[in-house]
Amino acid sequence: MTSAIALLILSALLSLGKLGFAGFLDSQCIPPYGPRVIGGQNARRSPWMAYLIRNGGFACGGSLIAYRFVLTAAHCTQINDNLYVRLGEYDSSRTTDGQTTDYRVVNIYRHEHYVSFQHDDIAVLKLDRTVVYNAAVRPICIFTNTGFQSTADRIQDFTLTGWGQSAQHYEMPTTLQAMSLHRVEKHFCGAPSNTICCRNPSKFACFGDSGSPLGALLKYRGVYIFAQFGIVNSVTGNCDGYSIHMDLTSYMAWLLNTLRRNWY
């Protein structure tokens, strides 16, 4: 991406108040979204997925949200030594998996009120260089207009993608997984108001899914898009089926301000 394109995106960010009902954080997020296998099985490539690496091993998931920025959970960044982001990953056991590229994390921006898994557990990672978008690497769609809150609150079914362990399989998978989750009342998770509580009775989010995007397939202007609405933060008990996700719509002002201040 050229500096001119970066300036264009920044200009769009700075004028978010003038956007329509459904402005995107990065307009280059993939508009068409093909069918995928869900329910704890291998997922088709999700080009926005970020594979966080610490000291050579898998640490957490995340999502590419703009040309040099990745969104993840703050608790994934508490140990920031040797932190890298791999984009274009699908099967980590294969060196010929496709167009994977590793980026060094040069700055970490945690929410200033972050204290634990359930409280403001959100962070933005700045990469050491510009990400070149292609078929295997694209940003995820994030709606920026707070007027979208009421629509987001009505979404009941989500898809979670990640490389985390499920409750049924104790080994961490090497292939990107996808599972369907259903929104339930927050009291099931004992979670605060700025979170989304989900459950799937057969395929649970579990260890290793932290930081991964919680999203939904939506029809927007005649095409299907996959939009992110949450970030995986924690599971309750012993992976008993309930998972807690930071609600992105509650953190949109923080996210946009963080990007504005650190765009270059």
What's this, in brief?
This protein is mostly beta strands. The protein has 3 helices and 13 strands, in the order αβββββββαββββββα.
Would you write up a description of this structure?
By secondary structure, the chain is mainly beta. Helix content is 11%, strand content 33%. A 6-stranded antiparallel beta barrel has the order 8-9-10-13-12-11. The chain is globular and about 40 Å long.
**Share of helix, binned:** 10-25%
Report the strand count.
13
- Order of helical and strand elements: HEEEEEEEHEEEEEEH
Give me the side-by-side strand order of the main sheet.
8-9-10-13-12-11
Major sheet size, sense and barrel closure: 6 strands, antiparallel, barrel
Low-confidence stretches: 1-5, 7-22, 32-43
> What gross morphology would you assign?
globular
Structure classification: mainly beta
Query: Mean of residue pLDDT?
Result: 79
Radius of gyration, taken over Cα atoms and rounded to an integer in Å:
17 Å
Q: State which percent range the strand residues make up.
A: 25-35%
Output the number of helix runs.
Answer: 3
Distance between the termini: 13 Å
Keywords:
264 residues; 6-stranded antiparallel β-barrel; disordered N terminus; mainly beta; 13 strands; globular; 6-stranded antiparallel barrel; 3 helices
Describe the secondary structure blueprint for this structure:
Blueprint: H1 3-14, E1 41-42, E2 49-54, E3 57-66, E4 69-72, E5 83-87, E6 101-110, E7 123-127, H2 149-154, E8 157-162, E9 177-184, E10 195-199, E11 213-220, E12 223-235, E13 242-247, H3 252-261
Antiparallel strand pairs: 1-9, 2-3, 2-5, 3-4, 4-7, 5-6, 6-7, 8-9, 8-11, 9-10, 10-13, 11-12, 12-13
